[in-house]
Structures are given as structure tokens and as C-alpha cells.
Amino acid sequence: MPMDDMPKLFHDQSAKTGLSPGSLIHVGDRITERVRITILNYDDDRFDMREGVTPEDVVGCRNGDGVTWIQVRGLHQPEILEAIGGRYGLHLLMMEDILNTGQRPKTETFESCLFTVLKSFRDRENAVWGEQISIVLGKNFVISFQESDQDLFETVVRRLKNKMGRIRHMGSDYLAYSLMDTIVDHYFEVVDLMADEIERIEERLTANPETEILEAVYQLKREILYLRKHIFPMRDVTLRLEKGDSPLIRESSRFYLRDLYDHIIQITDTIETFRETATSLLELYHTSVSNRMNEVMKVLTIISTIFIPLSFLAGVYGMNFKYMPELEFRWSYGIFWFVILVAAGAMILYFRRKKWF
Amino acid sequence: MPMDDMPKLFHDQSAKTGLSPGSLIHVGDRITERVRITILNYDDDRFDMREGVTPEDVVGCRNGDGVTWIQVRGLHQPEILEAIGGRYGLHLLMMEDILNTGQRPKTETFESCLFTVLKSFRDRENAVWGEQISIVLGKNFVISFQESDQDLFETVVRRLKNKMGRIRHMGSDYLAYSLMDTIVDHYFEVVDLMADEIERIEERLTANPETEILEAVYQLKREILYLRKHIFPMRDVTLRLEKGDSPLIRESSRFYLRDLYDHIIQITDTIETFRETATSLLELYHTSVSNRMNEVMKVLTIISTIFIPLSFLAGVYGMNFKYMPELEFRWSYGIFWFVILVAAGAMILYFRRKKWF
Amino acid sequence: MPMDDMPKLFHDQSAKTGLSPGSLIHVGDRITERVRITILNYDDDRFDMREGVTPEDVVGCRNGDGVTWIQVRGLHQPEILEAIGGRYGLHLLMMEDILNTGQRPKTETFESCLFTVLKSFRDRENAVWGEQISIVLGKNFVISFQESDQDLFETVVRRLKNKMGRIRHMGSDYLAYSLMDTIVDHYFEVVDLMADEIERIEERLTANPETEILEAVYQLKREILYLRKHIFPMRDVTLRLEKGDSPLIRESSRFYLRDLYDHIIQITDTIETFRETATSLLELYHTSVSNRMNEVMKVLTIISTIFIPLSFLAGVYGMNFKYMPELEFRWSYGIFWFVILVAAGAMILYFRRKKWF
Amino acid sequence: MPMDDMPKLFHDQSAKTGLSPGSLIHVGDRITERVRITILNYDDDRFDMREGVTPEDVVGCRNGDGVTWIQVRGLHQPEILEAIGGRYGLHLLMMEDILNTGQRPKTETFESCLFTVLKSFRDRENAVWGEQISIVLGKNFVISFQESDQDLFETVVRRLKNKMGRIRHMGSDYLAYSLMDTIVDHYFEVVDLMADEIERIEERLTANPETEILEAVYQLKREILYLRKHIFPMRDVTLRLEKGDSPLIRESSRFYLRDLYDHIIQITDTIETFRETATSLLELYHTSVSNRMNEVMKVLTIISTIFIPLSFLAGVYGMNFKYMPELEFRWSYGIFWFVILVAAGAMILYFRRKKWF
Amino acid sequence: MPMDDMPKLFHDQSAKTGLSPGSLIHVGDRITERVRITILNYDDDRFDMREGVTPEDVVGCRNGDGVTWIQVRGLHQPEILEAIGGRYGLHLLMMEDILNTGQRPKTETFESCLFTVLKSFRDRENAVWGEQISIVLGKNFVISFQESDQDLFETVVRRLKNKMGRIRHMGSDYLAYSLMDTIVDHYFEVVDLMADEIERIEERLTANPETEILEAVYQLKREILYLRKHIFPMRDVTLRLEKGDSPLIRESSRFYLRDLYDHIIQITDTIETFRETATSLLELYHTSVSNRMNEVMKVLTIISTIFIPLSFLAGVYGMNFKYMPELEFRWSYGIFWFVILVAAGAMILYFRRKKWF
């Protein structure tokens, strides 16, 4: 099937994410150089895992009674996708969506499979790494695609291998749920990381409201909006999977999807709280800037108000009128200083009472 | 049933509630050290209450014709939950939600029971103590779980014991309603406490707009948002219980749930009013800050405007030009003071008329 | 039936309405001291009205073929409510809602009657008096409860007595509509009163933006919010009455309820306009404050900019250098003044052109 | 039928429209003094128009096979409405709505007719004149009521008379549509007028941000809100007419109503744009005011910063210390001026580089 | 069919788009002078394209088994539209909408065809050119109308000619989808252009917050609102095409329309992000303006605070009192300078510590 009907295949929007370099969140740039395919095959009794297989192996592999999970890491070799797509009858549009990494999270029902695209965000060395994950759920198979070579689903593989929990007894829908659940669990890490970042900014802000912190707050806001944009649609995705009438999702799995939905809601609630916090950080910045301004104005006013009248008095006795009786008087200069000090003291008292300093 | 399938069991989010230490609201930190179980069993004629029973007692207990209420205080011994869960056939996900205290209020229908999670907020010594309450409603039993050892449902127990009202004649659904109603009644106390706090801040604000009050307003806002986040979903919960078609809720109980819903609406309305009040408190702060700034500016302007021209005049007669006829004139100095005082008086009048002071 | 099952019966929230003392709106404080009961009985031909009857009379009264309207003024004797409730089979929760005067307007369908709670607001001597009205509509009776002793429904009684309009030919549903319609008609008075208040504040604001006016605007805003909170749910109430399928509301009455709904919409629209007006009054206040600030700043700048350079010049010729040729020159002093006046004039011209004054 | 059952008949809200005198929009004050009735009767072949008929003529007129259009101009003689209402069986509430000119646009289905109320806005001599139009659509008749004597539907009459387009072949529903379409067409004129006004204000604002312009912007905003309030409900009206299942609207007319709906949407979109523009005009005003303030502050700062230090220097050499070697030195005075000019020049350069002027 | 029934046919709203001259977006002003018609006819095996045909050709052309695409470029000759409309039975209202270029994007179902109006935006030489495209989809034909002579659908023609992809095998619905898809693809270019513009403004803003940039930001905001207004309704259009039950859209095409919908969502998301960015650019402008103001105030305050007290001291020793012992003292002048420098240094240190400079 020629690909010339796909003029928009590589709309790469990562350059337009609205995140500056130096941002906390990194999207799709730890891209793997080699595509790695792993095939797992299991049922209640059996577990078989072949790493580093070729596309031909995928095409040739026979699905037994159990569940087959084909894990594809790396997207830059479309011919591999074509081979797999041909073997499992994936729709052309689905394949376009898998390759085009600027997708919004969504789920779609095709004839023989359910297709879900979502974003994974993970905390790696205090930075958030994002990538697009596509999960194709068929009757007894799951195919997962990811951009990077990271071992995202390591815990799922371990639970399969060690027969932990119920995962080996249940079907492909539970496997797909487990993959999504793993991704959503990572969101919690990211949310924690953001919370730390917010706290750090808040501390700096109260200590010293400088312009760079304003930069940091704006950056933070952009990051929160970015996460929001990619995690909020997940509510819809999980809800549609749960409520949908696809026969691929068994009744027993719906409880788990409902649970997943609840987790997403918890995360989106937290992100909303972050958004409000970012807004009040901005307000706080402006408040502290205006407070400093007030302080500056008060200093100016105090100094001016004290010394301008005194200067006037000094100016008066610097005049050269011939007949200025005070000038001749013996104690004038002492009285002058006395008056000056009393006046200054009175004004200082006045400002004190007004709580200006 | 092994628990190794539950990697996210203890997602404790209490550290991320967004509330600072010193806040009015305290969440889940008066946790009990010992889990206490009480079994109540009653019907129209009979009332039997056993305190401090062991999990084995629960497992072994025979449910007669009446209603059985198992009240579990404390969550830190998951094995107790496992025992009870096994006895009453609770779903694994339900048990996870009971233990994970960061739940959003929700209600869910399982095969043989209705599961409801909500937050209790109570006023204890002028502080709000929050904890998560889980209520499992079965055909002729209710199981309630709470985090702390507090005697939240003391009034319900008393009404059961003393056969007050209709509670002894009615089924387990009325008991579950009574528990929720007790929790919602406590919300009113909390709302009153918040109202007092708001009034106190408002008074301080009008008396003296200092920066600490700004802190207090922000703290207040966070607390309001926190309450909002945990009480608003209750509308949904009660509505779903009322409108739901679960056979566990009898027709006669739906009126009561409707009433509960109305109470929640009243509370959420009040919380919304609080939110608007908090916003206008912030506005008020900014207004009074800017009013003070204006006052400072006016003082500066009045002083400068009066004395700068006068100083100029004094400066003129301090010049050393040889031919300055005024200097020689006998009454110059007196006239100088006369002019000065008239000019100053005129300016003061001008400012008075402009209502600058 | 013992009342000990009603722990929340007297949740009086009037103290927490958010309205300060001195407010335009007064809620429920002209409470009557004696409960007054009036029984009206009428059909096409007959009209019978007994005032000041006792609860026993109510219990004993036989409903003929016509419509019976029991008007209860005052709520503080729950035993009267109990007696009436027992006679007409009112649900316990309904009786709680009648007594608890902090209800949100709502309508509820019980087995044999329709229960509606709403707030009446009336203009009495340029102040708004609010109270809670409960209307129970049965097959051939209407029971109305109000907090105060005011003659709210005087026009309805007059129309009944004088056989004005169609009211005597129609059933109990039309009577209930007439009561609600009377209440809504009073809202128009209140809205007019608010409009006058807004106009008065607007005038004061443009005349002299002082801080007390800010207080007045905030008070106004609170009052608008208060009205909004209690009138907006009325849209829902009337809509549900009109669209509901209760057999107690005849087809012919639905047109009237639709009309009532339209009136409510008109009122809520006006209240929304008020809210926007209050917001722009606040904006206007801030604008005029900042305009005054600008004026102050301009005065300061003009005075400083004119006199500071001149003072410098005067200072120069006050220096004691031995060799300052200008000092010796005959016309120096005259030239000095000439320069001074020209410079001052030039600056004044400059400020004029800049439109600073 | 006595009207004493209609206590709220003349709720005239025009005094409370929120528009000040001198506003662009004028509502209902070109009220006609005489009620004028015109009866038009037409079918495919016949066209008959009688102007200035009496109510008796209306009552007596026989409806042939064609469509009858009764056009009533002026509302102040309720007895005429009563006569027509009696003849065509109009509901009492409908007649109230026709007379009460404070209606929100709405459409209502009565037994034998469809009743629509809307506001007409027209550009007459660069001012907007508004009035309430009521249209009653029956099986083969249309009755239109308007407040003023204006010839609003002149184009429709002309098209009828000259047999232009399809209007003569189609039924009463198309006539009603044509009337509404004419009204909506006039909205476009009004929108253009507003656009011109906005442009004019924008120009004045950028030229000279004075306080009167602020007044004008607020006035504009009120006018936009007023239009919005009366045109937005039209979306609902046209949608309900199109989607409604009234047999009075034929299938073939629904396309036209859909088209009308699209026009309303276009107009409401434009009004929304106006609202946003008005908001940004306000922002612009505040920005330019604050820019002027900055300019003032800069002038003050430049003058003060240059002359205050120089004045100090002059003050130093005005001191009377006995031993001040510089005073004796021959070139001191020249050097003083040199220093002064260099310092002033340096500061001017500094401010230039900072782009302060 | 006479057109005199279409009084509103040429409501040209382009003059009122709210975009100033010099804007990035240009709407409908590269209008072609000649109407150009191209007829394409194809099926699986055959491809036939006739350019520059006359309206008579269109009327006379026989539709074979394949798909006929009539591409009309230019709208200013309504008689051509009439001819085509008569041939294909287009509804009068549809023809009005095609000619009236101020339409909101919409889709409508007529008896025998689906009518869709949308706006095309394209990047041509770093400016956005917009025009209205109307697409009529019939059983085996598509008619497209555009305002200008641009070769918008060149890629579609090429794919048809070269038998690329599946387009030749599929029906008229796929062709209509392809046209819309091409238009939506161009939106991505426009969005990129806007992103560049935003970046450019952002850079200028941080470099130097001048008033012209404010102008640019407002212009940008208007452009974003303009795009938003014309692209947002596309969501509805594509959704209605996909979900609609028109038999003209085959089941197999719905996947593609869903895909189109996803692209629109991506674009509208980006536009929303732009809107938020524009708002924060405005905030940034105001922040940097207020920061500059603060800087100005600090300079004023520092200079005044240092020199005003020193001037006072100089003034004191300029007084002419007879008995001022300091004046006689040998080292007074030196001490005076020492005191002055120490005081000035101390104040500078103080300001440094306060981080004022």
C-alpha cells in the first residue's frame, strides 16, 4: 500500500509546543535510534518473551490461545509499522496517528480493534520526559508503540513474568488497562515534581521578588498548561473505554477502567489547583512589587518632608537683608538648631504614628 | 489474596493538599494508633452492641434478621480490612479506595453492595479536622471505615440505642443515610467556623492593611478551595444515590437522600459565597494599599508644593548681587515673612478646597 | 410522632447571610409573635373566610367541594405545624423544610401534594424585607406558611372575596399560582428599589470618589448577590412546575406558570445587569481614584519642575566666590528676574501644550 | 372580559433599561399617538389592502381562502387589542405580553396559533430606535403589533403588492418569516452603526485619552450589553420555530427559518466581538493613562535628578566658612560652571541611553 | 428565477472584520476578475479534465458513471451560479450563502445534496489570505466555489490525475473530504505563521517594551480572534458530517471525517494556546512598563534622599548668624566635606543592601 496518500504524515508539532528550551518538560527528544520489538506471549500457565525480533518475526508469528503483546519501541522506521499493520489489519489512518506524534489523547473503535493514543510523562532526573504511546487492543493481542527506547512498562513485564496478581489469568483488555495504568501512575510522579517546583518558586518569590522569578512563573504556567492539554483529554478516553460497548472490553475490566478514570480525575484536579496557584503566584509577585514601590515612595516622602521645610528655614537665615534682627542675636544659632531638631523629631513621630516605618 | 497487585496502594496525597502548616484545616493527622472495631446489631425489638471486637469476630459473626453495622476506626492494619473484605465479598478496588485516603468523594455500585467514599470535616477546638469515611451498604449490613478514632457517629449510636425516631424500624439504607447525614451536619459547623474566620480577617483588614493579612487571605482562599474540592462532588454522590436504580435503596429512603442533597446544595452555595468574599477581601486589600499610597503622595506633594517655591524666594534674597534694592529697605524682612505666610496660607486653602486633606 | 429525630430542625442561617447590619435587605426579623391561622373556603358560588382559628379548627374542618386555603402566619410554634401536618398527611421532611427558614427555593413532589418553598422580598419603607414562604398544593387545598405577620396575599384575598377575574372558577393549582405570582410581582418593586440605590451611588461616585462610597458599592454587590442567590433558583422551580407531570397542575394552568417563568427570567436578567453595573461602578471608582492620583502627581511635577531649576540659579548667585563678575554688574539683579520669569513662563507654556493643566 | 385580573399589565421597564439619556439607542419613545390598523388580504391572484380600518372592521372581516395580515401600529388603546383578541381567540396572557413592552424575545405555542415577541432595532438618522414587535401566526392569518407608527414592513408590503419573489404563493408562515427577516435585516444596519461608533471612539482614544472618552466607552458598553440582551434570545426563538413541531410551520419554510437563524448567529458573533473590543478599549484607556503618568514621572525625575545635586554644589559655595580655599581662587567660578555643565550633560546622556526621553 | 426576492444578497461584511489595514490576515481581496470553471470527470479507469468551460457546458454536461467535480473560481457573476444551480437543483438559500462571503462555517442537508461553507486560510508570502469556500456534495458530483483564482486544490487534482492513493476508487464523498482536508492542511501553515509572529513580538517585547509593540499585540489578538471565529465552527461542521445520517456519506468515509475532526481540534487547541499567550504578552508588557516606572522612582528617590539632606547642611552653613562658632574654626570646611561624603556613602550602602540598584 503506497504511502503517497498521506501528505500530512509527519506534521511534527513538537517545535510548536509553546515550551521554551530549559523547560522542565521535555517532549520526544530522547528518541531511540533503533526500533526495538519485543513479543510476549502468555496464558495462565505459559510465559514466553522474545526480545529484539524483526518485523518478519512479527508477521510470521502465530497467535496461540493466550495473549500476545507486541511492544514496539521507536517510530522512525515506517516500514516496520507497515509490516505489523499489514499482519494485524490496522487501518491506514490509525497508522498515520501512530507516526504523527502531535496527537491529542483519544480512543477510537475500528472494526477489529480499539485504538488508544495517549501521552506518557515521566520524571527522570528531576525533569519530565514526555512521549506519545499508542495502544492497539485486539481480541487476543495488544500492540504498544512508543517513541523512545525507555523501559516504560517494566513493572508490567515483571508482573507477567512472576505471575504476580491476576494479570496472567485475564485477557488482553486487562493488559491494555495495565499499560495505561502504568502510564497514569507516572503522572503522579510528574505532579509531585511540579508541586516541588511550585514550592521552590513560592519560596524564592517571598524572599526576593525579582524579574527572573516572574520568568520562572510564566514558564511554570506554560508547563502546567502543557500538561493540562495532554492529560485532560484522558478523562474522556477512559470514560469512553469504560462506557463504550466494545466487545473487546469485558464487563470485569470496566471496574478497573473506572478506577483509572478516578485517578485521572484526581490528577486533573491537582493540575487545576496548580493553575490557580500559578495565578496567585503572579498576583503575589505584583503585590510584592507594588509593596516595594510603596516603600520607596515612603522613603522619598519622609526624607523630602523632613528636609525641605528645614532647608527653607536655613535659606531664610542665609538671606542678605540688612535688617534681620535675629541674625544679631547671640543665641539665634543655638535656637535655630533647637527648632530644627524639634521639628524633625515631631515629623518623625508623626510618620511613626502613621506607621510609615 | 496477595496484595502485590496493588502498587499504588498508599498514594498518600495529604502532603500535597496545598494547605500550609498552621492552616485552619487539618487532614488525617489525628490518626488512631489501634484499629477499633464495633459491631452493632439491631432490629425493631433488639439492640446489641459489641465494642473492641477482633477481625475474627467479624468473620465469624452471623447476621440475624436485623441490620448489622460494623464500624471500623483506623486504617493502618490492612490485614483487618482483608479479613472483613473476605467475609463480605468486597471487591479489591474498593478495598484499595478505602485505604488510599486521597479519594475524591464518589459512589459506586458493585454487585452486592453500594460503596460510597466521602470526606468528613469537623470543628474541634476551632480547627477543622478532616478524614476520609468509606461506607459500604449491603442488603442488611453497613460497614463504615474512618481514619481516626473520633466518635463521629455517636448521635446515630445513641438514637439506635434509645430507639429514638424511626431509625430502628428502617433498613440498612436508612442507617447509611443517617451516617452521611451526620457527616453533612458537621459541615455546617465548619462553614460557621469559616464565616467567623472571614469576619475576623475582614475586621483586621479594615483596621490595618498589613502584609500578614494578605497572607491570611491567601491561606483562607486555599482553605475554601480545599473544602470546595472535597464537598462539591458530594452533590453528585447524593444525586446518584437518589436517582440511581440500586435495589439497595428503598423508595422510602429516596426522600431522605433528596433532603441530604438539598443540604449539600446549601453548603456549596455558602462556600461559593465565601469564595467571592475572599476575592473581594483581596480587592479590598489592594484598594486600601493604593489609598495609603495616595495619602503618602499627597503629603509629599503638599509639603513640596508649599516649601519649594518659598525656598526659591529665600534663595533669591540670599544672592550676593551688589545692587539688590530690596536688601537695603528697612521693612523688607517683615514683608518677606508676610509674603511667605500669605503664599503658604493660600496654597493650604487651595489644597483644602481640592479635599487633599 | 416525636420530633427527636430532627436534630437539625433549627439550623438558622440568617445570621450568616453575608449581609452587614445597616443593609438594604432585611431577612426574617419582623417575625410575628403569635401564630395566626386563616381558613378560606370557596367555590364558584360560595366564599367563606374564618380568621384567627385554632389548630383544632384546622384539624376538625371538613373540606367541601370547593377549594380550601389555610394561611399560616408565623412559624415559631411547631406544634401547630404538627397538627396541620397530621391532618393533611404532610411528610416529616416537608415539615422540617417549612420550619428551617434557610431553604433554597425548590419544589418537590410528594405522594399527595406538591411542596414549594420560595423567598418573598418586599419593599417596605424603602427597605427590602425578606421571608420564607412555603406553599403546599393538594388536590383541593392549598396551605401557605410565612414567617411574619405581614398581609402578603391581601390582593389575592380581595380578588377571591370580590369574585374578581377567574380565580373563583379555577382550582387549587390556580390559587397556588396566584400566591407565587403575587410574590414575584413584589420582586419587581425590589428590583426598582435596587435600581434607585444604584443610581444614587453612581451620582455620589461621579461627584466625589470617597472611601465610604466604596463601602456602599461593596454592600450593594453583596445585596445583589443575595437576591441573585434566592431568586435564581426560582427559574428552576417554575420550570419544573410547568414541565412536571404532576396531576395536581391542570393543563390550563401551565400557561400561567410559563408566564410566571418569563417574569422570573426578566427579573434575573435585570439582576445580572445590576451585577455588571456594580462591577463597573467599582471600576469607575478605581479609575477616578487613579485620575486624582495623576492630578496630584502633575501638581507636584509642575511645581518641582518650575522651581527646582530656578532655585539652583538663585543658589549660584548666593555663592561666595571672590571673582564672580555678574555680581558686580549694575543690571544683574533685573536680568536675573527677567531670566527667571521667562524660564517659568516657558515651562508653563510647555505644560499647557502637553495638556497637563 | 374585565381586565381587573391583570394587575401587572403595565410594568413599564423602559425607565430601567440602564441606558442614560443621550444614548445612541432609543427605546419605544417615538410612540404613535393614534393606533393605526391595516388589513392586507392576498392569495396567488388577489391582493387587497385596506388602511386605517377600525377594530370593528377587524372583528367583522371575513377571511377568504388567502392569507390575512392585520398590521396594528400603536399599543396604547388596549380596547382595540381586546377586540382583535376576541375575534381571533387570543389567550389573555398573550395579550398581556403584547401590551407589556418589556418582554424578552420569545416564542410560544398556543392552541391555535404561534406567538412570537421580538425587538426591532433600526437606524434612523444615526440613532438606534428600538421597539417591541409581536407576531401572531395562525392557520391563514398573521397579526403584527408594533409600538410606533414607523413603516417597518414597507418592503414586505411592496413585495406583496408587486408580486415580487415567491411571497404571494406561500402561506402565512412565510409571511411571518418575512416580517422577522425584515427585522433581522435592520439589525445589520444597527451593527454597522455601532461599528462606526466604535471606530470613532477608538480614534479619539488614541488621539487624546481624556475622561469624557471613558464616559463614552462605558456608554458604548452599556449599549452593546443592551443589544446583546435583546438580540441573543432571538437565537433560541428562531431555533425553536425551526425545530418545533407546530403544524403551522410547513416543511418548506424551515429552510428559511434556518437561514434566519444563521443571520442571527452572525449578528450575535459581531456583538460579541464588539463586547471584546469595548473591553480592550477600556484597557487601552488605562494603558494610555498610565503611560502619561509615566511620562510625568520621568519629567519630574529628570529635572530633580539634574538640578538637586547641582543645587547642593551651589549651596556648598554659598557657605560662610572662614577658610574655604576655593572661594579665593581666581578661576573657581569658571570651573564651577564647567563642572555643572559637564555633570548635567552626563546625566542627560545617561537618561538618553536609558531611553527616558 | 428572478433574484429580487434576495434583498440581503450582498451583505459584504469584509469591511467590518475588525482587522486593521496592515494586518497579517487578508480576507477576500485577491478576488479574481474572471470566473473560471473547470470540470473534472473520473472513475476507476478514466480521468477527464476540461478547463475554462462556459456555464452552458456545465448545463449541457452529461454525468457518466464516475464522479464529476465542477470547480468554480470567482463569484462575481451571479448568472453563472444561477445556471449551475438550475442544472443541479440547488436551493435558492444555498445560492445566497455561496455569494454572501460573510458566512460562518456550517453544513446543511438539502434534499439531494449536502452543502458546506468554510473559510480557507493560506500562507502566501508570509501573509494569510482568507477566502470563503462552498462545497456542494451530491450523489455523484461535487461542486466547489471559491472567491479567488488561486489554485487551492492543486494537490487534489494531481492525486486524481496521477491515480495516487485511493482517491480514484472512492466516491464523491471522499472527494469532498479531500477538498476539506486540503483546506485544513493549510490551516497548519497559518498556525505556524502565527507562532512565528508571536515569537517575534515576544522577543521585541522583552528587548524594549515600547508602545508600538502594544499596538502589535492588540493587532495579534484581533487576528487570533478572527481565526478563532472562523475555524472554531469547523469542529461542529466536521462532527455533524461524521455523525449525520446523510446517505451521501458512506460508512467508509466517516473514519476520514473523524480524522479531519481531530486535526481541527489540534488547530483549535493551538489557537486557544495563542490566545492565552497573547494575554500573557499583554501582562508582560504591563509588568515591564511598571518595572520601568519603579526604576524611575528609585532613581528619583536615591538622588533626592542623598542630596536633599546634604543641601540642608550646606544651607545651614550659608546662614548669616553673627555667632556661628563653626564658621570661624580652621578645619570646619574639611570636616564638612568629610561628613558629607560619609553620609552619602552610608546612604548608598543602605540602598545597596535594600537592593535598589
Automatic annotation (TrEMBL), chains A, B, C, D, E:
NCBIfam families named among the record's database cross-references: corA
Physiological role: Mediates influx of magnesium ions.
The keyword Transit peptide is assigned to this record: no
Any Pfam family: CorA
Sample GO molecular function, one term: magnesium ion transmembrane transporter activity
Record PANTHER family: CORA FAMILY METAL ION TRANSPORTER (EUROFUNG)
Chief location category: membrane
Name the record gives this protein: Magnesium transport protein CorA
Family that this chain belongs to: Belongs to the CorA metal ion transporter (MIT) (TC 1.A.35) family.
Protein's membrane topology: Multi-pass membrane protein
Lineage, opening ranks: Bacteria, Pseudomonadati, Thermodesulfobacteriota, Desulfobacteria, Desulfobacterales
